[in-house]
Amino acid sequence: MTAPAKIAPATLAKLAKLGIHHRSDLLLHLPLRYEDETHLAPIETVQPGETVQVQGTITHSEITFRPRRTLACRLQDAGGELYLRFLNFYPSQQKQLAVDRQIRAIGEVRMGYYGLEMVHPKCRAVDEETPLQTSLTPVYPTTAGLSQIALRKLIANALEALPIPEHLPKLVLERLNLAGFAESLHLLHSPTADISSHSLETRSHPAWRRIKFDELLAQQLSMRVHHRERSQRSAPALPPRKHHTDALLKNLPFTLTQAQQKVCGEISADLTKPHPTQRLLLGDVGSGKTIVAALAALQAIENGYQVALMAPTEILAEQHFLKLSDWLSPLGITPVWLSGSLKKKDKKLAAEKIASGETLLAIGTHALFQEQINFHRLGLAIVDEQHKFGVQQRLALHAKGKNNATEKISEPHQLMMSATPIPRTLAMSYYADLDVSVIDELPPGRTPVITKLVSDARRDEVFERVRAACMTGQQAYWVCPLIDESEVLQLQNALETHQLLTDTFPELRVGLVHGKMDSAEKVRVMTAFKAAELQLLVATTVIEVGVDVPNASLMVIDHAERMGLAQLHQLRGRVGRGSAQSLCILLYQKPLSELARTRLKVIFENTDGFAIAQEDLQLRGPGELLGARQSGVAMLRYADIDADEDLLEQARLVADELLRDYPDAARAYLQRWMAKKHDYLHV
Ligand code: ADP
Ligand code: MG
């Protein structure tokens, strides 16, 4: 074993960009693919589309200027010839590729104007004796300024210099029939020529499986360790006192569904524990999560602790504020409102009430967790539509939790709510540190929303339909399209649509709400719509989450083909909340892309959010469903939770076993895979 050579600071900075902070991280930086320089292909046998290595003599070399400056060479071997072309080249390359030189070139073959050619092949000068490589050449993920050659050298050095201990206990290794760790790393960094390139590409080779298993195991361990650490920290125990909660239940115009009762029980048990709990409450749009949140809040309040309820948009936060004020003020509890757009003076006033502990319930946007806000004794933080929050906001919430003014050591409990169900494999991996509750039934008496797909050519009929509905006392939403993700264009479209509908229906009271409105204005419009002073509400997608106006029974979604499945499902969930039969019209414009057609079909055929989320996972992959978790949680580099579900299952079991029987091994795993990431793991 040789002593590791020093790495230059500039190189270190580049390595850091690749997530390589320790020399040992180099070992886990595995190839994306390989180039085969272990044998030579006779030119007469090569086919367009193949990536091959050929060797021959340069028989022609010139710089042409049309259509642009190009170095064009002809390479000939015993049986054939092909062209090598370089659009950007150095004088040294031109010299290297002079006539009569022996060259070895590797690249993709394609059919050019003059016959077979390689564009920008990798070339080197050789003679008859130059040996071929004995192993496949790894191609690593890299970053600007760090060449493959330099990276290969660093990794090869690390492989030689560093010990690679086997952390998996022998018994486990044998039972699972996995390849050794060191052996797998060596193989993946330089596979010999006889290894099936298919098994490397598809990552099904036993060496890949071992690495993926280890990665999944490390993720499981970190999730569990986090869960366990949490259970060693302290939080206020907030047992049910049944005083306020019973009073609220008695005043409600409905009784809780079975599913609501079940999750309320789970949350209530959480709050009773003397350590901080984190629960994710999943329930489809309209399943009644708000009342569950209110009951949880009351349990904390009954114990004299403060509660913060945070929602991702002002409109939604405002609705929660109104609804909870309505529910709780008869009990003598007055929530305080806080959002970024409050006047400075009002913000200060709210902050004071929160800091003094005078208010027990604060409702608002992420402004609740900004630096100036200090809670007196925060017992529970509730985050609605948690997938809509960014990582920064979750970090802020986390930090705030650790910073109760009076009880420095005590953290609040956390309840997160979402209408986006998580498929099983995601729940088993990225969400493994959370407890999950599901509301799996809708309140009774809902008539399912009828969905209609209507081509834009029939827009006039839709107008008439809207008018007719409003004239009979119903209320309607007109949702304006997304335009190239541009808020400016979306706003412009909303303004124009509002004008058009106002002009078309002089007999109707038409309102407008959009994201760029100041919040007082937004609230004024929503309140007017809720009070049925407005009959038709033109809206941008700001109403996507949480808006609850039971009397609204018609929704038109303009250019529905531009929206994603989750968004369409959320929007449609804004109607069908009262007893009237509701209708959702998806206006679409042809021609439809394949993807848009599939989405519209799925939303037309399904009303169940879970089924829709499953389809969404198929269409988009897990990345987007992860939402806010995505950049916070240790992302898997090699394993694919769906394709490697069997490994994931095993890793779950082994994680328990290591923590129980081999704590040193567990620690070594976390050190190897998570040393840097641990801080960011759980936001
Ligand atoms: P979401 O889960 O989408 O946040 P909400 O909490 O906004 O759903 O509830 C949707 C509507 O259903 C609200 O008007 C709410 O008052 C009502 N609701 C909630 N629970 C019940 C129930 N058990 N029975 C009848 N209506 C209910
Ligand atoms: Mg909601």
Share in helix: 40-55%
Could you tell me the number of beta strands?
Answer: 21
Number of helices: 25
| Cα-to-Cα separation, first versus last residue | 40 Å
Q: What is the residue-averaged pLDDT?
A: 88
CATH architecture of the domain at 243-439: 3-Layer(aba) Sandwich
Which stretches of 5+ consecutive residues score pLDDT under 50?
Answer: 628-632, 677-683
Mass-distribution shape: globular
Report the structural category: alpha/beta
The top-level CATH class of the domain at 243-439 is: Alpha Beta
> How much of the polypeptide forms β-strand, as a percent range?
15-25%
Please characterize this protein's 3D structure:
By secondary structure, the chain is of the alpha/beta class. Among the domains are: 40-131, Nucleic acid-binding proteins (OB fold (Dihydrolipoamide Acetyltransferase, E2P)), CATH 2.40.50.140; 243-439, 3-Layer(aba) Sandwich (Rossmann fold), CATH 3.40.50.300; 450-606, 3-Layer(aba) Sandwich (Rossmann fold). Strands 11-12-10-13-14-9-15 form a 7-stranded parallel sheet, sandwiched between helices. Strands 16-21-20-17-19-18 form a 6-stranded parallel sheet, with helices on both faces. It has a 5-stranded mixed barrel with strand order 2-3-4-6-5. It is globular and about 95 Å long. Magnesium ion binds at residues 289-290, 384, 546. Adenosine-5'-diphosphate (ADP) is lined by residues 254, 256-257, 260, 283, 285-291, 419, 443, 548, 550, 577.
